[in-house]
Amino acid sequence: MNKHIDILEKTLGYKFKNEKLIIEALTHKSYKQPYDNERLEFLGDAVLDLIVGEYLFNKFPQSDEGKLSKIRASLVNESGFDMLARSINLGEYIYLSNAEENNGGRDKASLLSNAFEAIIGAIYLESGLKVVEKIAISIIEKNHKDISLDSLFKDFKTTLQELTQARFGQIPDYQVIASRGPDHKKEFEVAVIIEEKEYARAMGKSKKIAQQEAAKMAVEMLKEK
Amino acid sequence: MNKHIDILEKTLGYKFKNEKLIIEALTHKSYKQPYDNERLEFLGDAVLDLIVGEYLFNKFPQSDEGKLSKIRASLVNESGFDMLARSINLGEYIYLSNAEENNGGRDKASLLSNAFEAIIGAIYLESGLKVVEKIAISIIEKNHKDISLDSLFKDFKTTLQELTQARFGQIPDYQVIASRGPDHKKEFEVAVIIEEKEYARAMGKSKKIAQQEAAKMAVEMLKEK
């Protein structure tokens, strides 16, 4: 039984003028209606890219576009949107088939992330960029207390540590597998080990960057499980 | 000697309030100023993604998000923006180093595409989405007379044929290299041959799709030369 949409609207601080639009945004394609949330997701994805891009553009006036792209990529991705979706309990409102429900659909990162994008797309369509920007930034800022390159990098290692402590009672171990290239252009390959099993490997221009990338991949793998 | 910015503003149908902003948007990093157009390009890239995404969302109310993404990808890419940039003679206004100038910089697809994104980013920053949307859509519609999945697919083969006729006095030849997979899920690999030399190969769910993809790659290769 789905929670009533009113409650979601209160959480968002936004009341839809057209109720059909929020229902479409919440409808997973498994629900077999003449509509689903995929078109709104397509739109919302671009809306979020612009909102987050402009936010970072203004917040970091000294950062070059490479750095801005990196920070955005760390916020604008499935596991990032999954987190935002969970923070507004979006899973409780999604319409999906019984099969998908029994398959844990309400708790899947991909479903949650897509529904979040669709909700943003729906608000944009109805009320434009300025309105949806306020709502999205407020949700993002509540979930990322400190948006900076360092803190977002720290986030993945911290997130992974929290996950592994809760699930395995252990912290992850990072091992440098290899370093390649001349001194001024070295690349490091790092593996994340949890309970003596390798979960992910990544390359990076520093050990720190490679660790963060590997941590990110491990977080995504653990969340899928 | 750069053409005067007034003329570009006339072509765009937009007068910048802040002249510094259009100068920044036109400044390639080789010009060695305290500013260049890369941050504005970062912003403009997201602005164009949203503008084109919303345009297609409204234009094709029956198309699913896979189809919309495909059409957008065929418009929103370096060679697409290069074409738009050329249609407003953007190359004549770009500030760049002598070395880059002598290296044909004004005529490079990457420089032109980036400057185009930066100009869009600059107008967005100054006047918001609605204003820049009108300008961008007008340029896009002038350059793509018929925006549809078929016509955009046709575009690459037509473009390649025009290019090869002008350059080699020949039309390209498409050869099916292989087909793989069961009947209901076949994939085709197609090569483009020009003057008995293979230029590109691509896979696709139909011969037509693979040909178009290969034609696109060949067009990009020929334009780089």
TrEMBL record, chains A, B:
Its cofactor is Mg(2+). It is found in: Cytoplasm. GO terms for biological process: mRNA processing; regulation of gene expression; rRNA processing; tRNA processing. The active site is at 45, 117. SMART domains: DSRM (SM00358), RIBOc (SM00535). Signal peptide: none annotated. Keywords: Cytoplasm, Endonuclease, Hydrolase, Magnesium, Metal-binding, mRNA processing, Nuclease, RNA-binding, rRNA processing, rRNA-binding, tRNA processing. Its main location: cytoplasm. It is an enzyme of class 3 (hydrolase). The keyword Repressor does not apply. It comes from the Bacteria. One of its GO terms (molecular function) is identical protein binding. Residues 155-224 form the DRBM domain. Belongs to the ribonuclease III family. HAMAP family: RNase_III (MF_00104). Homodimer. This is Ribonuclease 3.
